[in-house]
Amino acid sequence: LAIGAVFYPTSDFLDDEGRTPFPATLGIIRDKLLSVAKGLAKDAEGDSYAAEETRSGWEYMLSLPVKIPNSERASLSSIEGIITVCLNRMLEYGLVRKEGREDIDEQTSFTPTHQLRIQLRELTLPTLFKAVVEATASKVEG
Length: 142
Description:
This protein is mainly alpha-helical.
C-alpha cells in the first residue's frame, strides 16, 4: 500500500486516467513507509482506532533496521529489503517498470503500469475498505 500511495497520493489522482504518476525510487518509497508507520505510532498515543487496528504492522516495521549493510540480496529482515522484494514481485507481475541498473538501489526508479492503477482501484482498495468496515463493525458490536 505504501508503494501505491507513493504513485497515487490521492484517490482523485488514482481515478484520473489523464494523470501520469511520477517515477519513484527505493528511497522515496522507504521514506513514505516509515512516515506512515511513525504517524500511526504517534496517533496511537492518542485515541486512534486506525493506529490500534494496525499496531502489529507499524510496530513491526519500526522494529526493523532500515537496511542491512553488505547484504548480498533482499531480505525481509529490513525495511529496504521488504520494499525490494515487493518491487521485484511487482516487476514480475507487470505492475511497475524499472529504469536504471540491474540491481535495485537508490538510483533505480520505478514507474507504475496501467495494471497497477487497475489493481489498486478495482481490487485492492475495495477489499481493504471492506476489511476496515468489517473490523469496525466487530469493534462496535463487541
